[in-house]
Amino acid sequence: MKNILILVSMLILSGATYAGAPTCHSAGYCGYTGKVSTVYVNAYGQILIYFDVPVTVSEASKAGFSISNTNAAIFNVADNPDVAKMLYSTALSAQATGRDIGMQMTGVSSGYLKFDRMSLASD
């Protein structure tokens, strides 16, 4: 019975390590490492990557950002269509394989944190 409780505790704690809200810094950027819960593309040329845990308005203000949408970050395809394709494919790969992404947000667009770089973890 004790071994079962230890195993259940380990599973719960290991699952909790995947969830993480974006963190923001006074140097003018926010970072996110975690799962891609949803990848959304719309007819307005925007890619939205939804966090597994939303950022708070107060956290974004640490970087000097005023946001109204806390559950995703945005990239405007018109800003750089070639980079948009790479970011989109990286997000899809992360989602399909269950791997974490790292994103950095350095601005705001349409009330969302605006991301401009992304990395894909190996596991």
Write a brief structural summary:
This protein is an alpha+beta fold and 123 residues long. Helices cover 30% and strands 33% of the residues. The protein has a single domain, classed as Beta Barrel (OB fold (Dihydrolipoamide Acetyltransferase, E2P)).
What is the topological layout?
Blueprint: H1 2-16, E1 23-25, E2 29-34, E3 38-41, E4 46-50, H2 57-61, E5 72-76, H3 81-97, E6 101-109, E7 112-120
Parallel strand pairs: 5-7
Antiparallel strand pairs: 1-2, 2-6, 3-4, 4-5, 6-7
Keywords:
single chain; 123 residues; alpha+beta; OB fold (Dihydrolipoamide Acetyltransferase, E2P); 7 strands; disordered N terminus
Account of the protein in words:
The chain is globular, with a radius of gyration of 16 Å. The protein has one domain: OB fold (Dihydrolipoamide Acetyltransferase, E2P) (Beta Barrel). It contains three helices and seven strands, in the order H-E-E-E-E-H-E-H-E-E. Strand 3 and strand 4 form a beta hairpin. Helix content is 30%, strand content 33%. A seven-stranded mixed sheet has the order 1-2-6-7-5-4-3. The longest helix is centred in the C-terminal third of the chain and has 17 residues, at 81-97. It starts with a helix and ends with a strand. It has helices at 2-16, 57-61, 81-97; strands at residues 23-25, 29-34, 38-41, 46-50, 72-76, 101-109, 112-120. It has 123 residues and is of the alpha+beta class.
